[in-house]
Specification:
By secondary structure, the protein is of the alpha/beta class. The protein folds into two domains: about 25-270 and about 320-395, Metal-dependent hydrolases (TIM Barrel); about 280-315, no CATH class. About 45% of the residues lie in helices and about 10% in strands. It has helices at about 5-15, 25-30, 45, 65-70, 90-105, 115-125, 145-155, 175, 190-200, 215-220, 245-255, 265-270, 270-280, 285-295, 300-310, 310-315, 320-335, 360-370, 375-395; strands spanning about 35-40, 75-80, 110-115, 130-135, 155-160, 205, 225-230, 260, 340. Strands 1, 2, 3, 4, 5, 6, 7, 8 and 9 form a nine-stranded parallel beta sheet that branches. Strand 3 (about 110-115), helix 6 and strand 4 (about 130-135) form a beta-alpha-beta unit. Helix 2 crosses helix 18 (about 360-370), helix 10 packs parallel to helix 11 and helix 17 (about 320-335) crosses helix 18 (about 360-370). It is globular, with a radius of gyration of 20 Å.
């Protein structure tokens, strides 16, 4: 029995009479499949001193809830906010990796850190929850290929080339679309092309989430390996700069890559941003008051405030069906082999309805089956596509 299945049995025993039935088809498939989420920002909460080994009272993730949700492999995001300049980005990224390694060591009977598809296979056979590392934004490598290689040695298996901030060698979607920003150059600089080539040589996945369109197309000209979008959604359904247009989706399919769908309401529902702005203006006084009570940085403060205002947020949250539309769109446009889950849990302050936290991930399996996807196709979306692209990128 997988450790996630054992956890579910305990939950069901504690939830008799509440509709928990582990024998329903979608739950059986969900917990039998290998589920991979390629983007989770819970490390930011760990930096704030939280112990995610135990069930926590807020946020979207911790070890008990990840197991309850059937997650087998979680890629923890190593993200250094560019405004945190008290120490080098490089040192801060290493500190976050240290935190994850400590978490793994303290929970070694349940958890393992994987650096390859072979290690994933071994850890899953041992019934362990698998952690992996992704570096969100290229700024921690300090324009130094040796530092890129250092992060690979520490276990980082994808790097998002930019976050919202551009680097000296790649421009972000935020900067490329800012009409008031006069960039000297857009896309990949020559050094950026060297980085892409070195990532190919190392066997590190190139993540094009957050990058600008010109950077995207430059990457596609240079890379010899499949790319991923670790946490992006569909432009046609929601025209946000963080989403991918149809020609980009088609290019990723031709390249053999995978798009992992982001759950952020603002990335899946084109009406959400205006609704949230209206709601926040209506409750501005209360929000300002709540923010003063939270001793945390802006990133964590927005999550705490959203937790405290669940009732106000509920009417404007997009439906689960709206989220599934993005999976469905990618699968129909470029094929079921090119879509997966990149939730952005704990990196977003609000989630779609029926997707409150990681324990609700079985709902994705249920909804995909309702839309007519076969069990084999659902297994690909839940994790098979990630494992395939990882093997293709790895250096053997």
């Amino acid at each position: 029995m997988k450790i996630q299945e054992y956890s579910l049995v305990l939950v069901c025993l504690l939830s008799v009479g509440n509709g928990c039935d582990r024998n329903t088809d979608y739950r059986k498939l969900h917990f039998d499949a290998t589920l991979v989420d390629t983007h989770n920002d819970v490390v930011q909460r760990m930096l704030g001193g939280e112990d995610i080994s135990v069930r926590t009272s807020h946020g979207h993730s911790d070890l008990p809830r990840l197991l309850e949700g059937g997650v087998d492999i979680e890629m923890f995001s190593i993200w250094v906010p560019p405004e945190r300049v008290t120490r080098s980005y490089y040192d801060q990224a290493n500190e976050q990796i240290d935190l994850i390694e400590g978490f793994v060591q303290r929970n070694s009977t349940q958890v393992g850190l994987a650096r390859s598809s072979e290690e994933i296979e071994r850890l899953l056979k041992e019934g362990k929850f698998v952690t992996m590392l992704g570096l969100e934004g290229g700024h921690p490598i300090d324009n130094d290929l040796k530092k890129l290689e250092h992060f690979y040695e520490r276990g980082v298996r994808y790097m998002t080339l930019t976050w919202n901030n551009s680097t000296d060698w790649a421009t972000s979607a935020k900067d490329e679309t800012d009409p008031n920003l006069k960039l000297e150059r857009k896309g990949l600089a020559e050094f950026g092309k060297q980085i892409v080539r070195r990532m190919n040589e190392l066997g590190m996945m190139i993540d094009i989430s957050h990058v600008g369109e010109l950077t995207f197309w430059d990457v596609m000209k240079v890379t010899t390996k499949p790319v991923i979008a670790s946490h992006s959604s569909v432009w046609t359904l929601c025209p946000h700069r963080r989403n991918l247009k149809d020609d980009q989706l088609k290019a990723i399919a031709t390249n053999g890559g995978v798009v992992f769908i982001n759950f952020n309401p603002g990335f899946i529902d084109s009406t959400y941003a205006a609704k949230e702005a209206t709601m926040q203006e209506k409750y501005k006084a209360r929000i300002d008051s709540l923010e003063k009570t939270v001793a945390a940085d802006e990133f964590l403060r927005s999550q705490y405030v959203a937790d405290l205002m669940k009732d106000e947020y509920f009417p404007i949250r997009p439906s689960l069906s709206t989220l599934i539309d993005h999976f469905d769109y990618v699968a129909k446009l470029i094929g079921v082999d090119h879509v997966g889950i990149g939730s952005d849990f704990d990196g977003i302050h609000v989630t779609p309805r029926d997707m409150d936290d990681v324990t609700h991930l079985p709902n994705i399996t249920r909804e995909l089956l309702k839309r007519g996807y076969s069990e084999d196709d659902v297994r690909k979306i839940l994790g098979g596509n990630f494992l395939r692209v990882l093997r293709e990128v790895e250096v053997h």
